[in-house]
TrEMBL record:
Gene3D superfamilies: Bira Bifunctional Protein, Domain 2. It catalyses: tRNA(Phe) + L-phenylalanine + ATP = L-phenylalanyl-tRNA(Phe) + AMP + diphosphate + H(+). InterPro entries: aa-tRNA-synth_II, aa-tRNA-synth_II/BPL/LPL, Phe-tRNA-synth_IIc_asu, Phe-tRNA_ligase_II_N, Phe_tRNA_ligase_alpha1_bac, Phenylalanyl-tRNA_Synthase, tRNA-bd_arm. It comes from the Bacteria. Tetramer of two alpha and two beta subunits. Residues 111-320 form the Aminoacyl-transfer RNA synthetases class-II family profile domain. GO terms for molecular function: phenylalanine-tRNA ligase activity. This is Phenylalanine--tRNA ligase alpha subunit. Mg(2+) binds at residue 256. Its EC number is 6.1.1.20. Its cofactor is Mg(2+). The keyword Protein biosynthesis applies. Belongs to the class-II aminoacyl-tRNA synthetase family. Phe-tRNA synthetase alpha subunit type 1 subfamily.
Amino acid sequence: MQERLKELQGEALEKVSAAMDLKELNDIRVAYLGKKGPITEVLKGMGKLSAEERPKMGALANEVRDQITQGITAKQVQLEEAQIQAKLAAETIDVTLPGRPVHTGNHHSLTRVVEEIEDLFIGMGYTVAEGPEVEKDYYNFEALNLPKGHPARDMQDSFYITEDILLRTHTSPVQARTMEKHEGKGPVKIICPGKVFRRDNDDATHSHQFMQIEGLVIDENIRMTDLKGTLEVFAKKMFGEEREIRLRPSFFPFTEPSVEMDISCMICSGEGCNVCKKTGWIEILGAGMVHPNVLEMAGFDSKKYTGFAFGMGAERIAMLKYGVDDIRHFYTNDSRFLKQFSIHE
Ligand code: DAH
């Protein structure tokens, strides 16, 4: 009996030391120390022992139990510790790992250019004005000194909705609307960005829908030199301080005199290249002194007030500024194109 108990102790402790996890350890505890375990089984034979041997065997049985219990407890501590360590190792955060980049959207390159131009003029005291994209023939043409049947209407092929309503062909109607709201009182100093529409076939430089930015200043004693100075500031801020400007005579029904502004080519600095078509100059916008008829129609006294106006295509400005060779890139939303202007990457 004594030998059997020692044998069981040895066997149990061997299994304990080999146990891989807490579950296995608990199974060993149940198997050896439980009521149906082999030790209990051995002790059932105690009745056959002599009165002398019985307490000795009892003491030995207790000792064997204690040894196994101790072994189990020690192993349990060891396994628990190992479990904690394993958990810690698995949950370790490597703070030196670079973070995953978060892909955020950003403003479209065209929006960016429009905002830059807006900011520039806001800095000069202008406010931003807006008008409807579906416009009355009156504001789009008539109030701008383009009565029905005027040949210059052909300069802008229009999408008519009814006989009197069309998709605006330029942002100039916002001039007429703003002046009307001022009820003959200056000063007026606005910049108006917006979508415009023309019956053009889309190609690298034409789009049936594009963005224009219009400027209008009306006050007493506004002169052509004010226009020139303003445009010069604009050109230098947008395209570099070394840019020069030149004004060429032109024609717009709503301005008199009318001009077109060129800037010295920023690619070749005037030497002559493909962008400036070997002329050294790039056409940027149309402008002029507000025609007295336009002032009068909007309720301004053209003897007291004068003004200047200008209008430009935002895509053209963006194309020149960023070297974009096809206007359609702004609308086809190819993310490879858009990402080039990302400020986040
Ligand atoms: N509205 C003209 C266009 O779309 C551009 C323009 C030219 C606007 C001269 C103006 C201006 O205000 O003064 O072609």
